[in-house]
Amino acid sequence: MTGRGWYWDGCKLGMLLALGWASTSSVLAQVTPSRVASITYTPSLDRNRFSTAELVALDADVTVAADAETRLRLYEIQVSKMVETTRFLCEPQGPAPLPGPGVDWTYRASNRSLIGRFRLSCSVVNDLSQAYGLLPPEATSININRTVQNYSIPVLRVAGPGKVSRFINWVWSLPRLA
């Protein structure tokens, strides 16, 4: 990590609003399977540090279309799953509340090759949830401290008029960790 930092923080909300991310228009809700093999979360022991998590995809190629109706690929759907999971972990009453400001994600393909590393702060994932809205929860398995449990985690509403292209742009502008 160098320079100005590698995560979007709460002061970016103005940009989200200016780009129209906070639209309240009615949208068609659509849930696309995220095709996630595993999510492993390790809480930080320091309240000033980011916790770590790893998402492993079910597929080696995450550039394929997630469905026929949107332009979303598995890549964007799986980053959305990271946002949803981070938001869930940021809840103070959650199963393993974050001791720090967010999660540093490692994203891997099914063959374990590194796809990317991202930093998601609680403030950013909450801003995204407000801007896009949430769909009903889906079961998500998370390995926390070597124990895998299923949790009901609300799904980010990325489908709908204008939302898909904005979400794709956000995903591709998300700085990568070194």
Describe it for me?
The protein is of the alpha/beta class and about 180 residues long. The chain has one domain (about 5-175). It contains four helices and seven strands. Helix 2 packs across helix 3 (about 120-130). It is globular and about 40 Å long. The model is unreliable at about 1-30 (pLDDT under 50).
N to C succession of SSEs: EHEEHEEHEEH
Number of strands: 7
Our Rg estimate from Cα atoms comes to 15 Å
Q: How confident is the prediction overall: mean pLDDT? A: 80
Shape: globular
Q: What structural class results from the helix and strand content?
A: alpha/beta
Walk across the major sheet and give the strand order: 1-5-4-3-2-6-7
Number of domains: 1
Report the major sheet.
7 strands, mixed
| N/C terminus separation | 6 Å
- In terms of DSSP E residues, the strand content is 25-35%
Poorly predicted tracts of residues = 1-31
Q: Can you give the helix content as a percent range?
A: 25-40%
Structure annotation, total helices: 4
